[in-house]
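Example complex used in Figure S2.
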Amino acid sequence: MRTKLVAGLKKIMVGMLTGAALLAAIGLIFAAPALAQRKMIQVKGSDTMVNLVQILAEEYMAKKPGTAIAVLGGGSGTGITAIINGTCDLANHSREWKPKELDLAFEKGVRPRIFAIAVDALSIIVNEKNPVDSLTMAQVGSIFRGEIKNWKVVGGPDQKISLYGRQSNSGTYSFLQEHVLNNKNYSQDVKEMNGNAQIIEAVTQDLAGVGYVGVGYLYDEKGEIRRGIKVLQIKKDENSPAYSPLDKEAVYSARYAISRPLYHSTSGKPSDAVADFIRFELSPEGQAIVEKEGFFKVGRELMEQNEKNLR
Amino acid sequence: MISVKKKGLLGDLKETLIKRLFQTSGLLAIIALLGIFALLLYTSVPAFREISLREFLTSTRWDPTSPERPEYGILSMLASTIMVTIGALFIAFPLGVAVAAYLSDVASNKVREVVKPVIELLAAIPSVVVGFIGITLIGPLIARIFKLSHGLNALNGSLLLAVMALPTIISISEDSLRAVPLSYTEASLALGANHWQTLIRVKIPAALSGIIASLMLGLGRAIGETMTVLMATGNARAFPHGFLQSVRTLTATIAIELGEVPYYTTHYYALFALGLVLFIMTFAVNLTADIILEKHRKKLQ
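Predicted assembly (612 residues):
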């Protein structure tokens, strides 16, 4: 008798538990849209920009509780692809859209709007023990095309140059190819690393190494230049003076030769939540963060363009 | 009373149901395999509308995003994959068989019971961790030994893959050495052969097909490994001329490029074509291993 009673009770308990679980599941299904109504912004793209935008997003979230911004890397190409496929709200990219990508976007009915949120000085780095201090644009191009193979040619030791670069989805990869390599192929000997940080790590260890990174990656947490690397000065041509990407004035006056805007893209007119975040980034407060992270403020012309695109 | 009920009509039904369930899951594996093959084939065929098969198979240049002319040759990557894999087996196979022979013939039961599970645990190390060791430990070591400026090269990849293939090789080789009937050993010893002669001339030949199968399975593991080689080999696209050069394997290329490629472009389809090549390679290797193992089983019965 007693065992029967216990068994019966057990059955009831199991039934109740199952019911509760079911109810909870149904509740979750209905609650999900409510959760989504919290302003969630998905940002994706450029590895060069990921730290900067992450910090901007954190500051913004601290000011506007209730918003959630998730920032992912992956490369500029990844971000642009995500905007085309509608899998993110905001793309980061450190290069401009390619005609092919624009075609693809228009085919899918996506009308991208582009905002410049910061300026980067693309930096060429070598190991700190390398005696070379400066290179011309042409020399950088030749080195990455694989035409100059030995440091001796550019005034260094008799040592084979060891090339480090990014993967082909990187905006930095495309930018350098277009503006410094004159749209020629990279050398087949470039070792393709997964991000700016990996390039810096590799050049720190490799006495013959040379690589390219966004200027924000040159600083460590304390705002000092990372140990083990040397940032090369760049000359526009043989006869012009050399400028460092760390020299603010040279970058703002465009005397440093390889600087570029860093962009956001949205699909069509940005939603209110996204537009508000972009406004924060472009505000004096946002631009101060940009400078603090080692990048540079957006100039007036680009700012006016941004204003137009926000409307 | 309850036990009788189980053997009744309900029990029969249950048994049929369970049987069906297992049957379906077995079939599911086959369907999945065929499905993957069909999908790869279906998605890689459009690549050849723009790429000639000849270029794909014989060109050494792979540069799909080139502003000059996109190029889709897989030869460098194929050579890199084969080189890194063969290098790994060159290290892992002799070592693995030696360890297997030690475990089956020399080691005491106690030692074996500890060592074998530990070796099998080696297979449980995530490949990204192995790759990390390659970057921070093996790489600088290689650079110092060979007086290079860096150690991200094929040799690094081979060493790491060897470590990853060892558990498979040791475990299966040891199993097949122990599966050699005791009568073989007894007969050999009775004829006056010592332990070494018995091992080399009787046991290893008898277990040879199992040992070769372990080699093939290790090979399959090494060909398909991605994360480790991606991290440790430097990923330069040039055709490999030696083990001290940076190389980029088929798997690494897919992993690097698939995440960003615009969908339904030639580049996208070409990456699936790489996947198909990889699939055919591993399938052939595993099939060979299976056939050899099956023969081995029959022979010993």
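Chain A has two domains: 39-120+259-310, 123-252. The first strand of chain A starts at residue 39 and ends at 45.
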